[in-house]
Design a protein that fits this description.
Elements lengths: L1 H31 L5 H4 L3 H4 L5 H9 L4 H6 L7 H10 L3 H9 L18 H6 L1 H13 L7 H21 L7 H30 L5
Helix pairs in contact: 1-10, 1-11, 7-11, 10-11
């Protein structure tokens, strides 16, 4: 029982790491491909205070550090309030909510899934595929959470991760809690991924003269 609980705790720690990495990579893409308004981004309080001396500039140039990497280094992707404020500053919060509202709020039928449950041999060889396909299928439909509720649950997840890593507090994590946090995390990164693709599409769409 203790070993199983420890595995669940470590899973949540890794889940936060995956969330942080995905958000960082997504923001780097938005910056480097000019999908967002950089002037708005630079109005972020933390970025206003950033300054570099000559040694810093020399190091940045020598190591060919991109602006997107540099900017993202000053954003805490493990702070949901900071992420929420950032998306609001960039005008992305409404776009994320719009994506959630396009879902039909119905659980997908298992007969429509991409998973071939008859091919058990293939599934046993790649069980990760089953999990990925299930969440892809799930997140295309269900919209029982709005963006604010999503932020709240992700904040709880990050707080749990903080207590596990930094405070070594004894926590009992249940299986349904792991499923909830996993589903919410996948839901969030899914809509961020859809948003990134939509921003790309809007940029490449030819303007009528």
């Amino acid at each position: 029982k203790l070993a199983e609980n420890e595995l669940r705790k470590q899973f949540l720690v890794m889940l936060v790491a995956c969330l942080e990495t995905y958000l960082r990579n997504s923001m780097e893409i938005m910056i480097s491909q000019e999908l967002i308004d950089l002037e708005k981004l630079l109005k972020m309080d933390k970025l206003k205070k950033v300054s570099f001396n000559f040694q810093d500039i020399t190091f940045i140039r020598r190591n060919k550090i991109k602006n997107s990497e540099l900017i993202c280094n000053y954003i805490n992707f493990q702070n949901i309030k900071e992420i929420k404020d950032l998306f609001k500053l960039l005008g992305l919060d409404k776009k994320l909510n719009d994506i959630i509202q396009t879902k039909d709020n119905k659980m997908p039928h298992r007969t429509h899934t991409n998973i071939d449950f008859k091919n058990m041999k293939g599934i046993q060889k790649n069980p990760k595929y089953v999990v990925i396909e299930f969440y892809k299928d799930f997140c295309k439909h269900i919209k029982d959470l709005n963006l604010d509720k999503n932020y709240i649950i992700l904040s709880v997840l990050l707080e749990i991760r903080h207590k596990i890593i930094h405070k070594n507090i004894k926590l009992k994590i249940k299986n349904d809690e792991v499923l909830t946090f996993t589903g919410i995390t996948y839901e969030f990164v899914t809509i961020v991924g859809i948003l990134t693709e939509r921003l790309r599409g809007q940029k490449t769409k030819p303007h009528n003269s």
